[in-house]
Amino acid sequence: MKNLNRLEAYKVMFAFLDRIYFEEGKNDDLGGLLGSMSLWEDREGGTMDAAAWADWEDIVQDKELNLDNTYNFMIDYMKEFNSTYNSKDLAEMIEILMRELDINFKED
Fold first, then answer.
1. Residue 73: other Cβ atoms inside 10 A
2. Which end of the chain is least crowded, N or C, by CB within 10 Å?
3. Three-class SS state of 39
4. Is the pTM value of this prediction over 0.90?
5. Measured on CA atoms in the order 36, 105, 69, 61, is the torsion positive or negative?
6. pLDDT digits (tens, 9 = 90+) for 7-48
7. Do 34 and 56 contact (CB within 8 A), yes or no?
8. What is the DSSP string of 50-76?
9. What is the Cα–Cα distance from 29 to 85, expressed in whole angstroms?
10. Residues in CB range of 70: below 8 A, 6 or more apart
């Protein structure tokens, strides 16, 4: 499987969540997440909310990234975001995504 750099994996995550946002009724909490994640420029760290990129870096660290595990990191990223905002809607969306993507998490 092709490896991705942090920016490529971030864009995969963003595109996936953006598609869900528009296909599933424009959830306000997901919209807030996407707004903070939006890229200013096509470069690492150029997000609307600088903390969004810092959170992504904290989650992926120096781990190998590919299409398969990017979705695992996306769920971790959404959980981290929701730990601050405590959105019931977002928590439900995370649970649905975990089931749909058949993600099994193992604590490090």
1. 20
2. C
3. strand
4. no
5. positive
6. 999 999 999 999 999 988 888 999 999 999 999 876 566 888
7. no
8. HHHHHHHHHHHTT--EEHHHHHHHHHH
9. 9
10. 4, 9, 12, 13
